[in-house]
User: Fold these one by one.
Assistant:
Number 1:
Amino acid sequence: MTVDLRRWRGIFAVMITPFADDLSIDVDGLRRNTEFLVASGVDVLVVLGSEGEFYALTDAERRLVVETVAATAHGSVPVIAGVSHPSTTEAVALARHAARSGVDAVMATGPYYAKADADGLRTHFSAIAECGLPAFAYNSPGRVGYGIPPAQLADLIRSCGLAGAKQAAPDISELADLVVDCGDSAAIVGGAEIAIWPALCVGAAGNTATAASALPGVFRAVWRASRERELERGQGLYARMAPLREAYRTAGGQAAVVKRLCELVGLAGGPPRPPTRRVSGDLDARLRRIVADLKGIA
């Protein structure tokens, strides 16, 4: 598949999945959040990524979320649907549904729980790529339990006809190696919000950011600084987001933090599904200060 690299650049906002107090999906809130992001100027929407809590949803709920975001965005902003699943058969079924729903691309980790070898990964991603949409591999060692080395990931991109990869390995050199190896022909996207500035500086085509769901302006500003080679401005913005990174460490993840950020800026958030818990106490007060500091950045 020929990839239009211009379409897959910039800030990839990883959407939360808002829940009502009874933990059902807040469909109206999901529509409202989507409309906000479409108007915000982010470059790509990612639905059912890790911080979208896809692992806590039934397959029917996953389909509902994809259909809702695709219909609401209605082609205004490219939408990538996460189709990660330990079963290749089920991942393919989700990818085919995403194609029917009108999203623009799909993204998947390697199979988790059952560790896949090189041939298994090739089979998995080839099958997903056959759904008819651009497909991205998502390398997330911390989530999946194993990593895909840069050379192997580049081989998967070429042999499976993938559009690119979300590289979330903790070693930034793995992203740099992948950019050098196949960044001219595939979209290599930084996959760790906490390392967004280093990722953009080593040549990533863009970066994912869950907090962009609530505070898109600061992330768009970081992207512009990287494109315009304003190193001091980019470093300054990255430093200014340090309290947000510390909040993630305190909470042990991003979903609960960003859901609360969404609520603080007037969007739908709600509780995360167990075992993840809501933020509270001192952390909530810190998030209020983060919003006060970062919300006005455009």
Number 2:
Amino acid sequence: MKIRFLIVPLACILAGVASAADAQLLKLVMPDAKVVSGIDFDRVKSTPFGQFVLSQLPSGDSGFREFVAVTGFDPRQDIYEVVMASPADVQKKSGLLLVRGRFDGQRILALFKAEGKTVEMYRGVSILSGGQGAHGVANALAFLDGSTVAAGDVASVRTAIDRRSSSVGMDPALADKINRISANQDAWVFSIAPISAFAPVMHGKNAKGALQGDLIQAIEQSSGGIKFGNTIEISGELTARTDKDASSLADVVKFFANMAAMQGSGGNAGQFAALLQSLTVNAEARAVKLFVSIPENDLEALIKLSSGSTRTPRI
């Protein structure tokens, strides 16, 4: 079998979807991070939606079974928590994927070496380097210990290794905000980067233009989270430059939500429109707060409809 980086199965699980974020993972985040997100897989896996996501993964595929057999790593069971971080700088093209779980690093390293892959030693840690990423930056992966993996561009992985013994970490104010939002959410994201800063990496002139509009440029920070259960609660908050900007932004969000709700008719559009009926949008000073609750069974149905899934429902 052709062994691939563990980024592949990790990405598969992330595509399918806390107690406060793990302090040891946050310590590895770069000091200039502006966008940080995470998922508490231990908690999500115990929820009805988590079980549904696991049931959709290709566990019966022979390639997947072979991967688990030769690496001793089953992403369905062996991932406990994930934190992702980026400085949100299109010039740096850097980022980190930090994973807390259960890994047989020596076994996986032996498999890579057997395939003739080059393993770099950096401060006592083996770094596996791969091909070029989406932005022409070399990818890397390192087993920091038996329960922690760091993946991303080579420079970011090396500096994460450096921070294991360093007192320099992310901005304390940002860390405090992350701890507060992650304490009540199973999946979360926090960004102190203006949304308009992402315009250069968007594909298509329309998307770039939308992110460079006056109201979008007024958004200075954003955050969001998902709490899984029989009812899935999705919340978000946008921080604008002024109270007036926040009020205008809330009105625009309400307008487009109402338009989408009215135009939905049957199929995916109809189901999505029905979900929007529970969306609430409120402006409070400079903050625009959004909240929507979705019955877990309805979200499953929407995903199955979108993917054309014919899997047997859970019992």
